[in-house]
Amino acid sequence: MAVAMDEGRLRARMAEVMKAMDARGLNRGTSGNLSARCGEAMLVTPSGVPPERLTGDQMVLVQPDGSTAAGALKPSSEWRMHQQILNRRPDANAVVHCHSRHATILACAGREIPSMHYMVAVGGGSSVPVAPYATFGSAELAEAVVEALDGRAAALMANHGQIVVARNLDAGLAIAEEIEEQAAIYWGTLAIGGPKLLSEDEMNVILTRFRSYGQKA
Question: What are the structural domains of the chain?
Fold first, then answer.
């Protein structure tokens, strides 16, 4: 019973986070998706359901072999990407993917977010890299994104959007929101000649401090 209750709360929180992303301007319409580790399986948002209509029971439980229960909704077209990320990142329990405006602008221009501000480090590195383009929902995209996220919490996806891997859904939402803010700041600096970058040494100091920053419980 305890496991079922945990899954129920997780399903409900996924619906809430999708609504929050829409309300905060990180997504439009049916773009973007979420996943969360659920035992050996994962829960992922369904394909093509607007956030205002999402409920916890619509989340799709995808087994390690890719199968879903009879009668379940079709999972997000990006479910393979989510599964590969969670398989490769035992330190994480959630993946947040969204098409936030400024992050997507940079992704479409093939521009990473450089070390122009200390908060860039929320992405887990001195910059936020861009994963090479591949067709949405493809195995090639999944592999490109997994590689870009190696050792990091966030990456841009070329001609697509942004992706975050985190310890839980709330952390993932917070990181995605900060990556969008940093993308907007960088986009703004490009209009006035570009940013003055922080050194790699300084970014390493910041990354070290971030390991103990804030509440970790």
Answer: 2-210 (3.40.225.10)
